[in-house]
Amino acid sequence: MIGRISTFSFLLFSQSKCLALVNAPLSTRIQPVSISPRQSFAIHSSTPMYYRDDKDHVQDVSVANPEPNPEPLRQRHQRQLRVINKTSQEETSSISMNLIHSIWLNQVTLLIFATTMALTASFFAEHKLDLSHLHWNGMSEYHSLFDWKFSLLRMVEGVLFAIPMIAVGCMVENSDHRDASQVNFSTTNMVISLFGRRRSTLEPTASDATQVMMLSAAIALFTGISEELIFRGYIPTAIHSWSHSVPLAMVGQAVLFACGHLSTNARPGENRLVGLLQLFNGLWYGLTYLVTGGDLLPCIISHILYDCHILCETWTTINNQMDYTQESSRKVLPKNEQRAIRQIQEQAGPLLNTDTINFARRFFYAFDSTHKGTLSKKDTQRAVAYAFLNDKTIPDPKMVDDLFQKVQDCRSIHHHDNDSGIIASNERLDFSQFLQILMVLRSNTAR
């Protein structure tokens, strides 16, 4: 069912650019961003890609180019809060039961259709078939497709065979490769669309964690039973009865399983990675069936655990990061960062305004995986991959690494603020340094 393994696009989701910095000259040396004042920059999102809770009070660090007669920040926030409170119930009660019902209906319909086709083929066959005795392990001993009597051995087999798939999924989840970023984005988008935000003091009407876990298990149950009966039951049995080859049945069902998870709406790179991932999963489920002596139940258990892990782990991780992003966005930046940001604004021009800075700051915290208020090199690589997600070209990781080091070399090795306790060293970037890197990378790709 689920075309990918979880996690890391944290904030709101749509199919648009998340960050763009345009009309900037390429800078090969970073000296607190050496840019001509004539050049203008913009970080924008035509349709916000990342979650944005306008109820948050975000520090205004943009003091350059003030608007004429600006509304006091506190009054502006109060006015926004009054507007949002009118619709908070609609916006935060976000479990989509309609979408969940559609998934259930889709799985049931698919299973009924496949079973009807199998029965129809049996009706016209020379020898009538008993669906419960279908098997393709090439042995006389096998379990019935509908022998689902639980035992400790079968449960342990299902759990053990789920572990490698989850491990492979975590590798994709932690990758900063562009294709992996696209897959992670789609998975995150799906999970947030299903379950929305987690209930908290900031989101009192949002989704309850217990309810989300139960619904995740129900979705995984429907999916595991339906797809295993079809792809490890009916389809490989049909291939084996025609070819009398267990390896061909094994590969055939895995290929069809992978094809069933591709999407016409996905990008080529995303489909390529999803196809490879699901091909591996299909082969692994098939191996599970053969190793357990033609037993479908361990396959079903593994599939349920795998899908349940994706849904629950993704939803939990996203919400943890979103909570951290909301909290961190309220904090006052260290004075040295404020000075650096003002300098960047003065050089960038009026398009790098308050909203842009605040959006970029949320984006920055969204990729702070260790919640230290700074980004590691790996965090930065992942953030850049997402920032250029919809661009035709993505910056070379080596270029990102070089800029990472140059930014550090052009500023003090250590920055310490007594109030915040945040330290930016040569191994991590603070927000102003990250903003410098984004601007230089965008100026390069815009040429």
Automatic annotation (TrEMBL):
GO terms for biological process: CAAX-box protein maturation; proteolysis. Residues 213-308 form the CAAX prenyl protease 2/Lysostaphin resistance protein A-like domain. The keyword Ribonucleoprotein does not apply. It comes from the Eukaryota. Residues 1-20 form the signal peptide. InterPro entries: Rce1/LyrA-like_dom (IPR003675). One of its GO terms (molecular function) is endopeptidase activity. Keywords: Hydrolase, Protease, Signal. It holds the Pfam family Rce1-like. The keyword Transport does not apply. Transmembrane segments: none annotated. This is CAAX protease self-immunity-domain containing protein. It comes from Nitzschia inconspicua. The lineage of its organism: Eukaryota, Sar, Stramenopiles, Ochrophyta, Bacillariophyta.
